[in-house]
Specification:
- The protein is an alpha+beta fold and about 130 residues long.
- The protein has 4 helices and 4 strands; from the N terminus they run βββαβααα.
- A 4-stranded antiparallel sheet has the order 3-2-1-4.
- β2 and β3 (about 30) form a beta hairpin.
- α1 packs across α2.
C-alpha cells in the first residue's frame, strides 16, 4: 500500500556538493546532489527505516500534512510516495554474496562443465529448506 510523506529539502550550502533532506515524521535525514536524487534518497531512507521498525514490532507514524511543516526560507517542502511492501520485496530479492569452500578437484570439475555455482547453491538450499520462489 502506498503512502505519501512530506520531506524538506535544504539548498546546498556554499561549497557543499549535496542538498540536505529532512524527513520530519521519522526525525531522520539524508542528502542528494540534485532534487530528484534527494527524493529518491528520502524514499529509500524512509522505507528502510519503516520496515526495520515494523519488523521490531514498533509503530510507523502516519504521514504529516505538508501544510503542517515549518519550512525555513529557501528550503522546499514536497511529498514523496512510498510503498513499504514493495520495498520489502525488492530488499528480500537482492543478491547477497556468500563465500563457501569446496575441494579444489570439485571446483575444477565444475568449472570444466561451466557450472553456475550460484544457481546450484540456490536450488540446493531451496530443496533443503523445502521452499520455492
Amino acid at each position: 500500500m502506498k503512502s505519501v510523506y512530506p520531506i524538506i529539502i535544504y539548498p546546498k550550502s556554499s561549497g557543499e556538493a549535496t542538498h540536505y533532506v529532512e524527513i520530519p515524521d521519522i526525525d531522520r535525514g539524508t542528502q542528494g546532489e540534485n532534487l530528484a536524487e534527494c527524493m529518491d534518497m528520502a524514499r529509500d531512507a524512509l522505507s528502510l527505516w519503516a520496515i526495520t521498525e515494523a519488523d521490531a514490532g514498533r509503530t510507523v507514524p502516519e504521514p504529516s500534512e505538508l501544510s503542517s511543516l515549518d519550512v525555513p526560507a529557501g528550503a522546499v517542502a514536497t511529498l514523496i510516495d512510498v510503498d513499504f511492501e514493495e520495498y520489502r520485496r525488492r530488499l528480500a530479492n537482492r543478491a547477497v554474496r556468500k563465500n563457501c569452500t569446496i575441494p579444489a578437484w570439485l571446483n575444477e570439475a565444475a568449472e570444466k562443465q561451466h557450472i553456475n555455482f550460484s544457481a546450484i547453491l540456490q536450488r540446493a538450499l531451496m530443496e533443503q529448506l523445502g521452499v520455492s520462489r
